[in-house]
C-alpha cells in the first residue's frame, strides 16, 4: 500500500502541494499502518533506542539480555530483525522500516508471544512520524554527534527530532535511559519521566553534577581493561567481561545494563548475557582466516565513529608484533574508506579524510554508496581533508590510493598488509547492498569478499 501512495506522491500530486502537505502525509501513513495492524505496540513493552552511534549494537545487547532472561523479545535495527531466537537481515537500507512493514513486524512479534520489542529509532523515522503510533515505554539515549545535517537543516534540528522520542515517552509516564557523559544529554533529560537511569564511564562527569540530580539510578563504570580479544570493566563490585572490543563498546554495554536494570533483570543474568553476547556482523568484526595480520570490518561512516574505530584498533593492540604480542610502531594501520553519496552530509567528507590521515599509515579511498553522485568527486572531497595534516602532505604521493572499484580496493588493502599490521575496512559493515546511480542496488557482502581474497 505504501508503494501505491508513493506512486501518487511521485507522479500525481504536484511537488509544491506535496511539500506543503508532507507532514500530514507522513502522519496519515503512520496512522493507516498502525490501524491496519490494529495498533500492535499496545500489546508490547516497547524500548526505543536513539542517538548517533552505537544504536544497533545496543539494541542487540538489550534484546539478548531480555531474551536470555526468559522474556521473549523482538528486535528492529539497521542490520537485523529478530523475534525471539529467530533472526533475519534487514535488507531495506533503512534504520526504521516504512510504517506498514514496521507495524507488520510489531504485529508479528505480538502474535508470536513477544513481551518486549526493541526498536532502533532514527531521526529520519521521527521526522516522518514512523514512531508516532508506536506506544514506547522506554526511551534510550546513546550519544549525539553531527549527522544528517542537510536533511534536518542543522544540528539543533537533528537533536530536536531525537528529543521527541523522550517527549513521547514522558507523556506516557515512561522510563528514560541516558549516557550522562554526552555533552548533549541535558536536552534529553528535560522531559519528565517516571524513572531515569544513567551511566558514567570512568567518572568522566561527576555524579555531583546538578545536571544529573533527577537521575536517581546512576551506574559508574570503572577499571576498564581493553585487549585484542576481550574487554573487561566493573560496575560497583560486579565485574563484566565481553567479546565486544574498544571503549565505545563499554558505552554500548553500559546502556544495555541500565535498560536491563530498569526492567528488573537480575545482576547475575545481566552479567551472563553480556559475557555470552556475540559481536554483530560488520560491527568491529574481526576476520581471521589464519593470516598474520588483523582485518577489521566496521560500519563506521561518520567522523566520530570512524575515529572511535581507529582509536579502538590502537587501544586494543591489534597493530602488533605477531611474535611478542606487544605494540610495534613499525607495524602499520591500513585503512579503506569512502563516503555516502546522494548529496548526504557532504560536510563530513574532508573531516573523515583528515581523521584517516591522522591515524592511518596507508589509505585506500573507494566507493561506499555513491547513489547518483560522481564517485570520483566524492573521493576528491575526502582527499581534501588529507592536506590539512602537514606531515601527511609530505608523503601524500606514496601512501594513499584512490580505487573506485571497492573489491579491487579491498584487494589492494590486503596486499599491502604484512605481519603485525591491521587492515581496517569501514563504511559498509554488514550491509547487503551497494547503492549506485539510477536507483540500482548491487548485491554486496564485505565479509565474504574479504574471505575470498584472503584464501587466494
UniProtKB/TrEMBL annotation:
Pathway: Cell wall biogenesis; peptidoglycan biosynthesis. InterPro entries: Folylpolyglutamate_synth_CS, Mur-like_cat_sf, Mur_ligase_C, Mur_ligase_C_dom_sf, Mur_ligase_cen, UDP-N-AcMur-Glu-dNH2Pim_ligase. It holds the Pfam family Mur_ligase_C. Residues 282-429 form the Mur ligase C-terminal domain. It is found in: Cytoplasm. Transmembrane segments: none annotated. Coiled coil: none annotated. This is UDP-N-acetylmuramoyl-L-alanyl-D-glutamate--2, 6-diaminopimelate ligase. One of its GO terms (molecular function) is ATP binding. It comes from the Bacteria.
Amino acid at each position: 500500500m505504501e508503494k501505491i501512495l508513493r506512486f501518487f506522491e511521485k507522479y500525481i500530486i504536484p511537488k509544491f502541494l506535496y511539500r506543503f502537505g508532507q507532514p500530514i502525509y507522513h502522519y496519515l501513513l503512520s496512522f493507516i499502518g498502525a490501524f491496519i495492524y490494529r495498533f500492535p505496540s499496545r500489546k508490547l513493552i516497547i524500548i526505543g533506542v536513539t542517538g548517533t552511534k552505537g544504536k544497533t549494537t545496543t539494541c542487540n545487547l538489550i534484546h539478548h539480555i531480555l531474551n536470555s532472561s526468559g522474556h521473549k523479545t523482538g528486535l528492529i535495527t539497521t542490520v537485523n530483525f529478530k523475534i525471539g531466537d529467530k533472526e533475519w537481515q534487514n535488507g531495506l537500507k533503512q534504520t526504521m522500516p516504512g510504517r506498514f512493514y514496521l507495524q507488520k513486524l510489531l504485529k508479528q512479534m505480538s502474535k508470536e508471544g513477544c513481551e518486549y520489542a526493541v526498536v532502533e529509532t532514527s531521526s529520519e523515522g521521527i521526522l516522518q512520524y514512523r514512531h508516532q503510533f508506536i506506544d514506547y515505554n522506554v526511551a534510550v539515549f546513546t550519544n549525539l554527534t553531527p549527522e544528517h545535517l542537510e536533511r534536518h537543516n542543522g544540528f539543533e534540528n537533528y537533536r530536536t527530532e531525537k528529543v521527541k522520542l523522550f517527549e513521547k515517552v514522558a507523556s506516557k509516564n515512561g522510563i528514560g535511559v541516558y549516557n550522562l557523559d554526552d555533552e548533549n544529554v541535558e536536552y534529553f533529560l528535560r522531559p519528565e519521566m517516571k524513572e531515569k537511569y544513567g551511566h558514567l564511564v570512568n567518572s568522566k562527569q561527576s555524579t555531583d553534577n546538578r545536571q544529573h540530580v533527577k537521575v536517581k539510578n546512576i551506574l559508574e563504570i570503572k577499571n576498564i581493561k581493553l585487549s585484542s580479544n576481550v574487554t573487561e570493566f566493573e560496575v560497583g563490585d560486579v565485574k563484566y567481561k565481553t567479546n565486544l572490543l574498544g571503549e565505545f563498546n563499554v558505552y554500548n554495554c553500559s546502556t544495555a545494563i541500565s535498560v536491563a536494570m530498569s526492567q528488573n533483570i537480575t545482576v547475575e543474568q545481566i552479567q551472563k548475557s553480556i559475557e555470552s553476547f556475540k559481536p554483530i556482523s560488520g560491527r568491529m568484526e574481526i576476520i581471521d582466516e589464519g593470516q598474520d595480520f588483523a582485518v577489521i570490518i566496521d560500519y563506521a561512516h561518520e567522523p566520530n565513529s570512524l575515529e572511535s574505530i581507529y582509536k579502538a584498533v590502537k587501544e586494543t593492540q591489534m597493530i602488533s608484533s605477531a611474535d611478542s604480542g606487544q605494540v610495534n610502531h613499525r607495524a602499520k594501520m591500513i585503512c579503506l574508506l569512502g563516503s555516502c553519496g546522494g548529496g548526504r552530509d557532504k560536510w563530513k567528507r574532508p573531516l573523515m579524510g583528515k581523521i584517516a590521515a591522522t591515524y592511518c599509515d596507508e589509505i585506500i579511498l573507494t566507493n561506499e554508496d555513491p547513489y547518483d553522485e560522481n564517485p570520483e568527486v566524492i573521493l576528491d572531497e575526502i582527499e581534501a581533508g588529507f592536506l590539512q595534516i602537514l606531515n601527511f602532505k609530505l608523503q601524500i604521493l606514496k601512501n594513499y590510493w584512490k580505487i573506485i572499484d571497492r573489491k579491487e580496493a579491498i584487494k589492494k588493502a590486503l596486499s599491502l598488509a604484512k605481519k603485525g599490521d591491521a587492515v581496517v575496512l569501514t563504511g559498509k559493515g554488514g550491509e547487503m547492498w551497494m547503492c549506485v546511480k539510477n536507483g540500482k542496488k548491487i548485491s554486496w557482502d564485505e565479509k565474504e569478499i574479504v574471505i575470498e581474497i584472503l584464501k587466494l
